[in-house]
What does this fold into?
Amino acid sequence: MKKIKLLLTGLSLVLAGIFAFGQNIQVTGTVTDGSTGEPVAYASIQLKGTVVGTATDLDGNFTISAPANGTLIFTFIGYTTQEVAINQRTKINVVMTPDAVHLEDVLVVAYGTVRREAKTGSVSTLENAVIAEAPVSSVDKMLAGKLAGVQVTAATGQPGAASQIRIRGTSSINAGSAPLWVVDGIPVMTGDQSYFANTGNAISSINPSDIESITVLKDAAAASVYGSRAANGVILVTTKSGKEGIARFNVRAKYGISQLSNDNDYGIMSGPELLSFQRDAIVNAGFNPDDANGRYYRPMSLLDGPLTNWYDHLSRVGNMQEFEINGSGGTE
It folds into this structure.
């Protein structure tokens, strides 16, 4: 008999708890920023343990139907998640605290942000201190030997010509293998854009001294943001911008020399030797080099004029001088 009474008493208590928990009340309130006091718009409010939820309006106000003994979870990007017990209250105001630690763990990628531990792609970055050391004429040559898995090959020896860049090798036989360049969030055309020559390197128009950082996305994870154009990797270029504070001025001066590394004692003919060689060739061909009306007129009087050693002009030691002055600053 005692066992039956205990069982009935337990069932009564369970039913009473379920009944009490099942009574919903209308809960209203406001969500504000703890540092500024401004309302937090579109903050998420969810009833703990359920899929029931709502969001604040532009003024930070919310309304939700929830059990009197339930718990509300308040979340928003950049703020600490809070759990607030209702405790029979119909009015709940919540002050959310900015989560500085959470913001430091965010990695900016392309057009959005992801948590650093959720970023599975391979990323390499060159900072301004490393970029400034490279005495190069264009941005693409700046990557040579600086990043693992990035191969930079000069297509020609012409100054300013476009370089061939491969990220983790050649990825296609017939299609292109060049990476996608994105400058300050805008995809740009790269490579040879000229019609008559191969010196139309579009990316060389960016001054290397104006670059803040270069980030290289190496694997297919970049395609989730940039699409199929990122199949061969992505090179993100961020240029410098003014910052609040006193104006800053930078002065750079570069000087260099260039010469043939080894000409293998290459010898050329002198003026008399070249003329004698030409006259012998004309005679051997059956013509007269002294015939003014002939097809091959090469008289000895050509030696009376000025003689120029063109090889000496082309192979002399070259000098390079470059001077830069730039300033930056800004206000609120």
